[in-house]
Design goal:
15% of the residues lie in helices and 33% in strands. With 595 residues, it is α+β, with helices and mostly antiparallel strands. Strands 2-8-7-4-34 form a 5-stranded antiparallel beta sheet. The protein has a 5-stranded antiparallel beta sheet with strand order 3-33-32-31-30, with no helix packed on it. A 4-stranded antiparallel beta sheet has the order 1-5-6-9. α1 crosses α2 and α5 (387-394) packs antiparallel against α6. It starts with 21 loop residues before the first helix and ends with a helix. Belongs to the carotenoid oxygenase family. Its cofactor is Fe(2+). This is Carotenoid 9,10(9',10')-cleavage dioxygenase 1-like. InterPro entries: Carotenoid_Oase.
């Protein structure tokens, strides 16, 4: 399996699936032909007149193709184990609700605004798989349709708080289509047998003009005063933050016609948004720079990659941006308004890095902090392997579990942990080191967003519970970590082969069988220091089946949450969250009534 540099390593899901040999492809063609021969004969017998409208003819042909698909492909729900129950979907709410069960107090200087998190929520109750004469294909665990979960913090004139909660699907065009058909329609086209995947590609394209559906389930971000939902496989969708209504696809007023990576970055100083768009056909990767108001594409550059690579994350500094070329262990640095010819490449140790804390310039060096692993969890097991067993093995801890497991080499696991790269632009040298030890796996990093692209002192991330993840075959995060980038771990003794020691880390662990997602930093109003503020996160207790939002003071990170907000509905585990400060006093009724 190929390994790569920053920021992601993946079996390239954006690439067309490969068929192992010409013999396999000939077999596929023969199977396709025999499978659809009865329907082709029906088409030949149709009493079509020359004056039939083209649209009518087209609709008739598509109906026949739909009938063929319904005949050949059998859809089935992918069951969830009891330990996976909170990965299951919830119903979309028809209206917002007020939340009154709050333990502790929301601080008076907490920012008024919206805490919002994205995540997969399969529209028909479960992810699906298909079986046919071509084999099996199935949706991966990241493919459920996007659902936004929002908590509104409204501050009254007397300083009292009103908290509202609502959820809503991101209404992509493909979600609307499947709602209209009232059944799963897209054939799974990422994981499974090559002939089944290839036939899914072809039939999805024929029926809907798209290889796969638009999931928009990964991240939410703000730019130019507007909020957007995004996943790697399509353009972002603009969201009305008060109603969670999906407004339209964001193409930067016609200037952008390809997907965004899920983590675009605002450039410090200018407020410009740096984006990276990946596609399965040339140009495989393009850089874009969008104006601070979001109205204009200021720069676009073909990075001239020779293959398609799914890039989930990029980083910016005050002058530079970075991207990753899958299959090569190297990092590229280029000016924000540069071209492919201006990229400076640095060879690094093979790795899989989905997410970054931050990037910044330090003299001649560009420093990058991310959560680095040595293997990838996407797209999943190879043909013939049991999916649950495969994920369970990959999510094991490095250290042995007492009485049950032996130690496992790190390169055989998906075990991300904080890592540092220092690229010297003058000498071309790279220095690399782990920032934390092997006690905990950590991912989904975030910082005070006021420090994106400039040197920062603190980072935060979710701490994986490797035991619970192994038992369920799904990643579960049992706590949070605060990293002190400038302070050495006082309990660490230097090894001969390491130049610097591990850094100081504080942990905030949740209650037993409680796991969280979508954590974000909320700066304190009028705060002076970088960690003046709070960390908010959705959590779910699997013993009580209760979901909450926790508010944790960043300066007293190991202390109990200052507030526990118990939600009236279950919130499934998801992906990334953010907090948008905004005044809401005059919008409470609009939030409640416009759902």
């Amino acid at each position: 399996m190929a390994s790569s540099g920053l920021p992601i390593h993946i079996h390239c899901s954006a690439q067309k699936p490969s068929v192992s040999s010409s013999a396999n492809f000939d077999h596929l063609k023969s199977t396709l032909s025999s499978a659809f021969k009865p329907f082709l004969k029906q088409i030949e017998r149709l009493p079509l007149r020359i004056d039939v409208a083209p649209q009518t003819l087209n609709n008739t042909c598509l109906k026949l193709v739909d009938a063929a698909v319904d005949s050949v492909f059998e859809f089935a729900d992918q069951p969830l184990l009891p330990s996976q129950s909170n990965f299951g979907p919830v119903d979309e709410m028809k209206e917002a609700v007020q939340v009154t069960n709050i333990q502790g107090e929301i601080p008076r200087d907490f920012a008024e605004g919206v805490y919002i998190r994205n995540g997969p929520n399969p529209i028909f109750g479960a992810l699906t798989s298909t079986s046919s004469m071509f084999g099996r294909s199935s949706c991966t665990w990241i493919e459920g349709e996007g659902m936004l979960h929002a908590l509104y913090f409204c501050k009254g004139v007397e300083g009292d708080w009103t908290v509202l909660y609502k959820n809503r699907y991101v209404e992509t065009e493909t979600l609307k289509l499947e709602k209209q058909r009232n059944k799963p329609s897209f054939l799974p086209a990422i994981e499974g047998d090559s002939p089944a995947i290839l036939s899914a590609y072809l039939l999805n394209m024929l029926r809907y003009g798209k290889v796969n559906k638009e999931i928009s389930n990964t991240n939410v971000f703000e730019h130019g005063g507007k909020m957007y939902s995004v996943a790697d496989n399509h353009k972002p969708q603009e969201i009305n933050i008060l109603t969670l209504e999906t407004l339209n696809d964001w193409d930067v007023n016609g200037g952008w016609n390809r997907p965004f990576s899920s983590h675009p970055k605002k450039a410090p100083g200018t407020g410009e948004l740096v984006i990276l768009g990946i596609d399965a056909t040339k140009p495989f990767a393009e850089l874009g720079v969008i104006s601070a108001d979001g109205n204009k594409l200021l720069h676009r550059a073909d990075l001239k990659l020779n293959r398609c690579s799914l890039c989930h994350e990029i980083g910016v500094t005050q002058r530079l941006m970075k991207y990753e070329k899958e299959g090569y262990a190297r990092i590229g640095i280029m000016p924000r308004y540069g071209s492919a010819d201006s990229i400076q490449w640095f060879k690094v140790k093979p790795n899989c890095t989905f997410h970054l804390f931050n990037c910044f310039e330090d003299g001649d060096e560009v420093v990058m902090w991310g959560c680095r692993a040595l293997d990838s969890i996407i797209p999943g097991p190879d043909k013939g392997q049991n999916k649950f067993d495969w994920f369970s093995r990959k999510l094991r801890p490095i250290k042995p579990i007492e009485g049950s497991m032996d130690a496992v080499p790190e390169d055989q696991l998906v075990f991300p942990r904080p890592y540092e790269w220092r690229m010297n632009k003058q000498t071309g040298d790279v220095k690399e080191r782990n920032l934390t030890g092997t006690e905990y796996s950590m991912d989904f990093p975030f910082i005070n967003e006021g420090f994106v692209g400039v040197q920062n002192n603190y980072g935060y991330c979710q701490v994986r519970d490797s035991i619970a993840s192994t038992a369920s075959g799904m990643a579960k995060y049992g706590g949070l970590a605060k990293l002190y980038f400038g302070e050495q771990n006082p309990g660490f003794s230097l090894k001969e082969n390491e130049v610097e020691g591990l850094i100081k880390v504080e942990y905030h662990m949740f209650e037993k069988n409680t796991f969280g997602t979508g954590a974000a930093f909320v700066p304190k109003q009028g705060g002076v220091e970088e960690d003046d503020g709070w960390v908010v996160t959705f959590v779910h207790n699997e013993d009580t089946n209760i979901s909450q939002v926790l508010i944790i003071e960043a300066k007293s990170f190991t202390s109990k949450p200052v507030a526990r907000i118990t939600l009236p509905f279950r919130v499934p585990y998801g992906f990334h969250g953010t907090f948008r400060p905004m005044q809401l006093q005059n919008d409470i009724l609009r939030i409640l009534l416009n759902s």
